[in-house]
Structure formats: structure tokens, C-alpha cells
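Honest question from a wet-lab person: if I give you the sequences of every part of a complex, can you actually get the arrangement of the whole thing, not just the pieces? Trying it with mine:
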Amino acid sequence: VSAPPYEGETYAVVTAFVDELVRSDIAGAVVSPGSRSTPVALALARRDDVRLFVHPDERSAAYFALGLAKATGRPAVVLCTSGTAAANYLPAVAEAQTGRVPLVVLTADRPPELRDVAAAQTIDQVRLFAGHAKWSVDLPPPAPLEAVARQARVVADRAVALAAAAPQGPVHVNVPVREPLVPMPQAAPPGTGGAAWQGRGGAGPYARIARPPVQVSPAAARGAAAELAGPRGLVVLGPEAADGPDRQRTRARAAVALAARLGWPVVADVLSAARGLPGVIGRADALVRDPLVADALVPARVLRLGAPPTSKALGQLLERVPEDGLWLVDDGDAFPDPSLRARTVVHADAAAWLAAVAAALPAPGGAGADAWLRRWQLADAAAGEALAACLADEPYGCEGRVMAELGRVLPAGACLFVGNSMPVRDADAFFAARGRGVRVVGSRGASGIDGITSTALGLAAGSGRPCVLAVGDLSFYHDLNGLIAAGRFGVPLTVVVVNNDGGGIFSFLPQARHGEQFERLWGTPLGLDFAHAARLYGASFARPRDWPGFAAAVRSGLRRRALAIVEVRALDRTENVRRHDAAFAAVAGAVRRAWASDGGSGA
Ligand SMILES: Cc1ncc(C[n+]2csc(CCOP(=O)(O)OP(=O)(O)O)c2C)c(N)n1
Ligand SMILES: [Mg+2]
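Yes, you can. This is the full assembly:
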């Protein structure tokens, strides 16, 4: 194989850097237009083994990359030019750090001699995301030095490996380049043929950065098993880190298997891969809102994985676990417990640790579920029936029922991306698609209402599955720009906009009861007609009038394999609070009846 043409030191070094990113296996690259980023953009675009998305809005672009990474668990690359373009990445970078999403952020920059001297389109980009990034590197400008080429390759390998390592997150590589920014073909200087410039032989990376799982010693597993085992325990699975669907499933199954050994119920957040697995409690949020029901469900010991649960009510239940009773298992090095009550935090490969502890426990007795397990299971089943009955009577526009309907309509293997504010909470309470392998994904790191549409489009592009986004009207407005990705990249997405004309969540908060300036400051009705957004971005648009019409619109959106917007005109926001209360009251009644008619539940 003959060496590629030499195009000057900038292209030689930048091409080596990009070659190494690709060899390290990335989910794709999202590039925004600009001049200073030209060498990196061109080097990426020349690769036919990289999925390249050219997105004109950097804020949306970074969120699109976030979605790509969420779909696959592989780091996604974003690239922009110098100046405020780079600053537009901050929201997605912050979400990537807090939500554990692997991202490699590349910002083109002026070389050092042009910084802080009023050069055009130049801001201080060095460590721009420090505090939000796992690693910040300011590369030297390209030079015809072998050490510089080696460094470019090593930094690329380290960036991808570090982003993907638990806790997954963003790394920032600031890339200064000098003019000329376009290729300058010339005779290759001697010594540019080796591994530094051309890469190692074969397809592998220049530096293999390995992190084999640490084995859990049998003694440590026995110790943990002995301490954990006991009555009235609970395994709680929160929102997943973005380490890919395979690892998420493996971890979820390992948690379920350990719980079976312990004889404990498993409670799964809607954003946990365990939701929908057989026997897993999916109605905890609705269950523990009632004080009397919650009293009967306070666990004596808890093993928690993932991020803190979406459900505030469940979080409050966990605050009642006795001292010494709360264990966390964290794949990374964090202390993800805002209650500050965890007694034991295990930093380990969670799946391996769970399996080792399960193996150290005796097989379950087979005497049938004990009273505690049975109490949870009866309650979950009763809650499911009560919610189904209650929602079936709800008029068109009831927000909770939107989620219940989606549970019926989504095909097996589909993805549901839930926006922040009420959609994720309503999905936690009301979405059920048992046993059909619907993957539910959200962005609960920093829980912003920005970038939701772009993240969903990135997820759709990366997963290749049929995807539905459920999003509030303010959140949808916030990232209208993101819709451009659907048509540009041919990414199909069905967007269900739950339009309650404002921030529905605030009606659940004390600000609503206080009342002063409520609509002006929190309700914030925008009065937008989203049909115009559909027209602008070439989407189909439907505004159904009843539930059969809603189901038909979502199905037809999915069949269309393009951008489809389905707007649900929701009930009044105050009415929405009443209907939530009524549904949860129905659950409480049903659970108490179920327990009363079952002597064995012990409640
Ligand atoms: C970027 C950002 N700005 C502001 C907020 C605060 N916030 C939380 S929920 C919400 C209202 C969201 O309204 P909508 O998307 O319509 O959802 P709904 O509450 O109606 O379900 C706001 C402004 C936020 N989380 N993120
Ligand atoms: Mg709203």
C-alpha cells in the first residue's frame, strides 16, 4: 500500500489524530461548519468508515451526538470552529458528565500566538469545559515532528478510552491550527512513513488502553453477601449510564438474579433496563405516594444501582431505610446519593460484583415468596390494574393516559425517548410495555429541557430502531432547531408533543399554591401553533381529537419513516394535577384492598 499524499504538517498531524479516533471505534461524528475547523472536518469527511453528520447548530449538534452515544454506548465525536460556537456545547457537555454519556468534544482554536490579541472569532477555549469534562487537553499546533504525530495519536486513543470508561463522560480536546487551513500537497519530508504518521499495522489503535474488569474475590463476595442478606430488603435500579444496551441488560439481569437469591423484590425506574423484566416492580412511584401504603413498604435494607430514581416518592421511601441499611454499587467512582445516607458504596464492575455476590449466597429455599416479597408483588399487580382501569376512563388530552397509550402502540423493539419535566415522570408512573422490549431512554443527568429533540434524533440515528419522542411543549420549543437533523440525515422520528401550553410541572409545586404571578413566571403559556414548525421542517403533522385518532397518528408516523409530529392538546394544567391525584388515590385504594383480602401479605 502506498502512503497517502503529503499535504503539509497540519493535514499530516490532524489526519493521524482523526485516524486514531476512528480506529478507537466511535459512534459517529457531528460536525458544524466553520473555517478554523477545516482540517479536522475534512479529515473526518474523507473517511468512509465514519458516520458523519453535518449539523449547523452547535447546541443541537452536541445533543445529537449525545443521543448517538446513548444509542450505542460508544463515544460520539463533535467538532466545531473557534469562538462562541464552542461555548454552545456546554449544555450537552454538562449533561454528558452528569448523565454518564461518552463524548469526545473537539473545538478548533487559533494557535497560541493569536490568543488574547483580539484575533477574529477567538475566545479563551483552553479548558473551556473544565469542571464538566473528564479530561481537557490543549493540543500543540501541528508541526512536522514525529513526537507531535505520536502525541496526536495517543491523545485520540486516550480521549476515546477515557470517555467510554466508567463513569462515562465528556473529554475535551482543543485543537489549535495555523493557516493554511486547506491541504497543501507537497513532497513528503523523510521519516513520515512510520507508525506515528501512518498508524500501526492492521486496524487497531496506536495505543491499546485496556481496562479489564476487576475480579471480585470470593472472600469479598462472601463478606458482602453475609452483610446484605436479611429480611425486607429491596434492590432499586435507577436510570442507566450510557454504556450501551448490552451492558445495561447484563447489569439488569445480574441485579434481578441477585435479588432472587436474596428473596428481595426489584424496583426498576422507567429509565432502567430492568423495567419490564419478569417479576420486576414497575409501579413503585404510584405505590409509595400513599403514606399508609408507603409505611408498609419501608425496607430494612436497600441495594441501589444507577442514578437516583426519577420518582421523588421512591426517593423519599429510600430516606427511611435505617442507618447502615443503604448500599450503592457504582461502576464509576462516584457517590450518587443526594440523601447522603449511604453506608456502603461499592466501586466495581456492577455486573461482575452482582454475579459474584449472588454466587456466594445459597440457592433460594423454594418455599415460595415470603410475606415481604408477596406484599410488593400484590401491590404492584393491584396498582397496575387500578391504573389501567382509571386511565381507560380518562378523556382525551389526559397526560398520564398519553403514556399508557404509547405503551400499547409502540412496536416490539422500539425506542421511547422521554423528555424532562412531566413526560419522564408520567412514563415512570404510567408507561407499561411489559415483555415487548421497548427501550426507554431519557436525559436525567442535569434534567434540562434543552436539547431533547436533538438527543432523540441522535438516539434514532444511532439505534436504527423505530423511535418515538414524548416531549412537553416548552421543551419542544426550546430545541426546534434540532428538527433540522431529521430531514438532513434521513432520521425517522415520531414526536409526540404533549401541549399543555406551558410548564405543566409547576402546577404540582408550591409556587402554584402560592399563586402569585404564577402564570407569568412559571406557567409561561407560549400559545404557539406547532403546525408551522412541521411545515418548516417538512414533517407530517397531526392533531388528533380522540384516543383512537392518537394511536392511529403515532402508528402512521412510525410507518412514514420520516419526521412526524403528533400534537396532543392536553387538558388544563390544573386539571392535570387533579387527575394525577385521582389516579394515585385509586392505586392506594386498590392496594389496601388487595392486601386486606390476602392474609399472607402480612401488611
Ligand atoms: C434548560 C432548562 N431551562 C429551564 C428548566 C426549568 N424547567 C423545568 S420543567 C420546565 C417546564 C417544561 O415545560 P414543558 O416542556 O412544556 O413540560 P411540562 O412541564 O408541561 O410537562 C422548566 C422551564 C430546565 N429544566 N432546563
Ligand atoms: Mg408543557
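Two things worth pointing out. The pocket of thiamine diphosphate (ligand 1) is lined by residues 420-422, 447-450, 472-475, 500, 503-505 (CB under 6 Å). The first helix runs from residue 9 to 23.
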